[in-house]
Amino acid sequence: MVRLPDQKTFQQTWQSMAWGQRREVLRSVNRGQAMRRRKDARLAVMVARQQQRYWRWAWLFAPVVALILLPNWVAVAVNAVLLGLVMGGFAWFRHRRAVESERANLERLQ
Q1: What is the distance of C-alpha 24 from the center of its chain?
Q2: What would the mean pLDDT of 66-95 be, rounded to a whole number?
Q3: Can you say how many angstroms the Cα of residue 43 is from the centroid of all Cα atoms in its chain?
Q4: DSSP string spanning the chain?
Q5: Rounded-to-integer distance, Cα 44 and Cα 4, Å
Q6: What predicted TM-score, i.e. pTM, was given to this entire model?
Q7: pLDDT(13) > 70
């Protein structure tokens, strides 16, 4: 069983990292890859889980904005559907990459 840091420890470690190290972790999660260093793989798992939570609901923001900004209901419906499909596809892609990264980094930690 892999032991991951709790939220407080993760936040402290993340804040103490240099910008380049954070960027490396984020880049590997966004690409769905495992980290090279085992030490950073724990952080990558935590970041991947955060991104999964975010992308699970982020696709709803675009249709909500369409509902608020347009006065014509036909245009609202069309924009909400189109933006929902576009953002839904993008969110699905990003969520899938985060899942792949989590799986790869957990395997790296085994």
Answers
A1: 14
A2: 86
A3: 13
A4: -PPPP-HHHHHHHHHHS-HHHHHHHHHHHHHT---SSHHHHHHHHHHHHHHHHHHHHHTTHHHHHHHHH-S-HHHHHHHHHHHHHHHHHHHHHHHHHHHHHHHHHHHHH-
A5: 10
A6: 0.84
A7: yes
Residue 76: is its pLDDT beyond 90?
no
| Other residues' Cβ atoms within 10 Å of the Cβ of residue 99 | 16
Q: Which residue reads 């924009």 in tokens?
A: 79
Structure tokens at 25: 């972790």
Q: Nearest 5 degrees, angle CA 70-CA 79-CA 59?
A: 110
Residues whose CB falls within 8 Å of the CB of residue 58, separated by 6 or more in sequence, listed in order: 87, 91
